[in-house]
Specification:
The complex is a heterodimer of chains A (503) and B (228). With 503 residues, chain A is an alpha+beta fold. Chain A has 21 helices and 16 strands. Chain A is 32% helix and 14% strand. The complex binds protoporphyrin IX containing FE (HEM) and iron/sulfur cluster (2 copies).
Chain lengths: 503, 228
């Protein structure tokens, strides 16, 4: 066992209201700069939809992540082999174009006050933030926000290929139209495609906490990481000639604060905590058969209460405070104990460490003679809480997103979510478990106590329960090995330079 | 006198500048080491320009280097008339390809607003110097035939004498001025290396072929390493 710690995340999609506050928090802190305007380290997509950059999930086009060739249990980067990548270094044939993102723009606001007097209202024309010239806006971030059901966006969601007409109908029929939000940040993967794709080796994972960073001084702008990341979460800064990505707000984490997008989240959908995992088995988890990918990833996440794990972690230099944080981690509960949270597109095989609780979505209703009626369940009672066979979204679609096509895996999550709902309804209505709740709990394999814990962690967790931030203790890491006075003298203000492009 | 200047003073100055300033830039502003790719802003012209230019120029440079460092081997390679023909024609073809590639680079920077927004004076200096140099090279190759062989008796002894710090330019003095310009041009471009984006040419990440795919950096262990 080679136990390491990873600061990991859970997003509870049932609670996401699609307000984009997270995106704005991140933008204001980190990417409100020249060359970074188009970067959305955090973005929120409408699903079904095409996402950002457009159709990023289509790896036939963008060639991100890893590929398992039939008959082999070794993985290769989908973009190219090592020699092939060097051969493509002068021109990367799989790089998204700016048009797949959008040309960043602002408005000529000063014209509103400086326009000469005339008969018409002055206008503020859109101005490209790259060229400074007026532009016609073609698309923008979140261009398909809430546009599910549209023939242009939702219908081109790469996850829809292979869906039957019935299943499409189920999502796109006007009266039953359905969509949900998918907020995305970097997954700080264990088998990161970006790290593997970088010819220079400028991208690395921090051993202590698993945060994936681009060393700005080492990056040479070969722009291969943009392709290597199947989630398109590395962005190329067109002004500085360097790649950039979500830094999991490590300066905030190191000072005990939650990342900005987590802290500001209005729906409180975000959880952050430590997972301990066995680094020797990363490749094994990444190379599992599609059907087993989720379980294989869960298997390398180890129990922080197991004495053998604790001993191995200590032997590996994981501090006690980190182990304690892992024991209190809400992420461990959601991912491993309750098995409610699933990785996004595990079939990309980067072993992403951001997990999603799939959305239940509101109850299903149909229009009937001008009246909207809640659909009836199997026993033709009003079914306010949904049963699996009446799921608002086809299981196949959710399985495409969250379990590499394994429908049992998502179905099991839904059984648990439904059981918690029925359990809470029974508690609220009568204070005791009725037959339907009992059955649902049994089908989901949950105890009443677990259902109660899930309910509490979902509906009313405190800030401290949602974000269990380990003391990252940079100062301790340094102090143990270097005389603090020497370090203080050496660190100083550092060598501050403007991050400006070279000649 | 002028020959001394361009064949002795210029090469040594250029080499000294290239070495010293590359180190200074590395130590003081490593952030500016980048290919400064503009592919995100424009994709299709670049695919032709960059692939044509780089493959052509790299093979041409390798040929120059090979003829300088391994003149014996090179002479044997040229053994027969047929080989010489093939080599000359390949050389001319590559030179044309590099001119086309560079021409596209330049046109792209002139014509496209987005690319102009990321163009510096250094870029123009470099592109013009390179264009002049490849055109001169092409003219030399087409006007003064069989360069592949006379290079061995002019450039090779001169360059090796420079390396031995015993400059000998007797073979160069009688050469036509077009050839002299091309020779000098090479060193002008060498001098531009640390001051322009050309710096990217020395950062070819060969190590990618053998490094492990995943990289994990430990703050603790790094601190230990930093202390030496
Ligand atoms: C040795 C390996 C080399 C590598 C890996 C390399 C790679 C690159 C890359 C990635 C770009 C950026 C292309 C883009 O915009 O996406 C570039 C641009 C350029 N390279 Fe190289 N290069 C190499 C050698 C050279 C050499 C030897 C020269 C000249 C003698 C050269 C001249 C240029 C020029 C002038 C540009 C800028 C073109 C423009 O955007 O206007 N390169 N190179
Ligand atoms: S999601 Fe993050 S860590 Fe994973 S490949 Fe993309 S940029 Fe790298
Ligand atoms: S963690 Fe920080 S850097 Fe990453 S997306 Fe959220 S706000 Fe941005």
């Amino acid at each position: 066992m080679n136990i390491r710690a990873q600061v990991s995340m859970v997003f509870h999609l049932d609670k996401c209201i699609g307000c984009h506050t997270c995106s704005i928090a991140c933008k204001n802190i980190w990417t409100d700069r020249k060359g970074a305007e188009y970067m959305w380290w955090n973005n929120v997509e409408t699903k079904p939809g095409t996402g950002y950059p457009v159709q990023w999930e289509d790896q036939a086009k963008y060639r991100g992540g890893w590929e398992k060739k039939p008959g082999s249990d070794r993985l290769s980067l989908r973009m190219n082999g090592r020699l092939g990548t060097l051969g493509n270094i002068f021109y990367n044939p799989h790089l998204p174009r700016l048009e797949d993102y959008y040309e960043p723009w602002t408005y000529q606001y000063e014209h509103l006050t400086s326009a000469p007097e005339g008969d018409d209202q002055p206008t503020a024309r859109p101005i490209s933030m790259i060229t400074g010239e007026p532009i016609e806006i073609q698309r923008g971030p979140n261009w398909d926000d809430d546009l599910s059901g549209s023939a242009v966006y939702a219908a081109n969601d790469p996850n829809l290929d292979g869906m039957s007409d019935d299943e499409r109908q189920m999502m796109f029929e006007v009266e039953r139209l359905v969509f949900f939000y998918l907020p995305r940040i970097c997954n700080h993967c264990l088998n990161a495609g970006c790290v593997a794709a970088c010819p220079t080796g400028a991208i690395y994972k921090r051993g202590e906490d698993g945060i994936v960073l681009v060393n700005q001084d080492r990056c040479r702008g070969w722009r291969m990481c943009v392709t290597g990341c199947p989630y398109k979460k590395v962005y190329y800064n067109w002004s500085t000639g360097k790649s950039e990505k979500c830094i999991l707000c490590y300066p905030r984490l190191e000072t005990g604060q939650a990342p900005a997008c987590f802290h500001t989240c209005v729906g409180r959908i975000r959880y952050l905590g430590v997972l301990l995992y066995d680094a020797d088995r990363i490749q094994q988890a990444a190379a599992a058969e599609d059907h087993d990918l989720v379980e294989a990833q869960r298997a390398i996440i180890v129990d922080p209460f197991d004495p053998a794990v604790i001993a191995a972690a200590r032997a590996n230099g994981v501090p006690d405070a980190m182990i304690e944080a892992a024991q209190n981690s809400p992420v461990y509960q959601f991912v491993k104990a309750w098995k409610l949270a699933l990785p996004l597109h595990p079939e990309f095989r980067t072993v992403p460490m951001l997990f999603y609780v799939p959305p239940m979505l509101p109850i299903q209703a149909v229009a009937n003679n001008g009246r909207v009626e809640v659909t009836r369940g199997n026993n033709s009672e009003n079914d306010y809480f949904g049963t699996l066979d009446q799921a608002r979204l086809p299981m196949r679609y959710m399985a495409r997103l969250f379990s590499a096509g394994n429908e049992d895996e998502v179905a099991q999550v839904y059984r648990r979510l439904i059981a918690v709902r029925l359990y809470r309804r029974a508690q609220n209505a009568s204070g005791e478990l009725d037959e339907s709740a009992r059955q649902a709990l049994a089908a989901a394999g949950l105890t009443a106590a677990e259902a109660q814990a899930i309910y509490e962690m979902t509906s009313m967790p405190t800030f401290e329960q949602r974000f269990v931030i380990p003391p990252l203790a940079r100062e301790v890491n340094i102090e143990a090995l270097q005389d603090p006075f020497t370090h203080k003298a050496e660190a100083g203000f550092g060598f501050e330079r403007e991050a400006k492009r070279g000649e | 006198m002028i020959d001394q200047l361009i064949f002795i003073a210029l090469p040594y100055t250029a080499a000294a500048l290239a070495i010293v300033m590359t180190i200074v830039r590395w130590r003081t502003n490593r952030f500016t080491y980048s290919s400064l790719s503009s592919q995100l802003l424009e994709n299709s012209i670049l695919s032709w320009a960059s692939v044509a230019w780089h493959y052509a120029i790299l093979i041409i440079l390798l040929a120059h280097l090979g003829a300088t460092v391994f003149p014996g081997l090179w002479a044997r390679l040229l053994g027969g008339r047929f080989q010489l023909y093939v080599l000359e024609i390949t050389g001319l073809g590559l030179a044309l390809l590099s001119i086309v590639g560079l021409g596209l680079f330049i046109w792209r920077r002139l014509a496209l607003r987005r690319i102009r927004a990321v163009t510096t004076r250094g870029d123009w200096l470099l592109l013009i110097a390179l264009l002049a140099q490849v055109i001169l090279g092409f003219l030399v190759a087409s006007l003064y035939r069989w360069g592949a062989t006379w290079y061995l008796h002019t450039a090779t002894p001169w360059l090796t004498s420079l390396v031995r710090l015993d400059p000998n330019i007797t073979a160069l003095v009688p050469l036509p001025w077009l050839i002299k310009l091309h020779f000098a041009g090479g060193f002008v471009i060498l001098a531009l290396l640390p001051f322009t984006r050309l710096i990217h040419a020395i950062t070819l990440p060969i190590g990618y072929l053998w490094r492990p795919y995943q990289i994990v950096v430990w703050n603790r262990r790094q601190t230990r390493a930093n202390r030496g």
